[in-house]
Design goal:
Blueprint (H helix, E strand, L loop, with lengths): L1 E8 L6 H8 L16 E9 L9 E9 L9 H5 L4 E6 L4 H14 L10 E6 L21 E5 L5 H31 L1
Length: about 190
């Protein structure tokens, strides 16, 4: 069984904690008062690997819900260590969030050498925001990444399905990397 470390990152007040709680089945209800994450919260759970190619496989997931305030930037190298995948959460209703996506990507994905399939862009629509599902205008290199619109009020299971597909892709990459390392030791 693989142990997978997934970071949930993005601007403050984009919905990272709500999504992390939902994806890890930590809470029954969605919503509540806003409380910023200071540093990081680590949620652990087990998940079946959908899309990994092995129907019976499961993995232990460490979901790192990272605070979006840049005052925690000095902690980021420790958060990034050994990360297998990154979910960048942002809200297109807040123009600064769209501009920050490139910074989050270059810091947490590109600098760590993660592949495109190890990054998921998640446009989170807060309750009552009127979900605009048109693609946001992002830098060309970001448009190659898988982008999912999240609306936990209207279609929560679609969000869960997309996350599990992403998780399966991350585990598949981990498996391929492990096989490559083993072959390099043998030869």
């Amino acid at each position: 069984m693989f142990k997978t470390k997934i970071l949930i990152i993005g601007p403050s007040e984009s919905g990272k904690t709500v999504l992390a709680n939902f994806l890890s089945d930590t809470v029954e209800t969605i919503g509540g008062d806003y409380s910023p994450t200071h540093g990081v919260r680590i949620l652990e759970f087990e998940s079946q690997n959908h899309g990994s190619g092995d129907r019976d496989s499961s993995c232990e997931v460490e979901l790192w819900d990272c605070g979006g305030d840049f005052k925690f930037e000095s902690c980021w190298p420790a958060l990034m260590k050994d990360a297998n995948g990154v979910v960048i959460v942002f809200n297109t209703d807040v123009p600064s969030h769209v501009k920050e996506v490139e910074t989050w990507h270059s810091t947490f994905v590109a600098s760590q050498g993660l592949r495109e399939n190890q990054c998921l862009l998640l446009v989170h629509h807060k309750p009552g925001s009127g979900a605009d599902t048109s693609p946001p205008s992002l830098a060309s290199h970001l448009s190659k990444l898988h982008l999912v619109h999240s609306n936990l009020e209207e279609d929560p299971e679609d969000v869960r399905h997309e996350f599990r597909q992403f998780l399966g892709s991350v585990v598949k990459t981990m498996s391929e990397n492990r096989e490559h390392e083993e072959m390099s030791i043998i030869t």
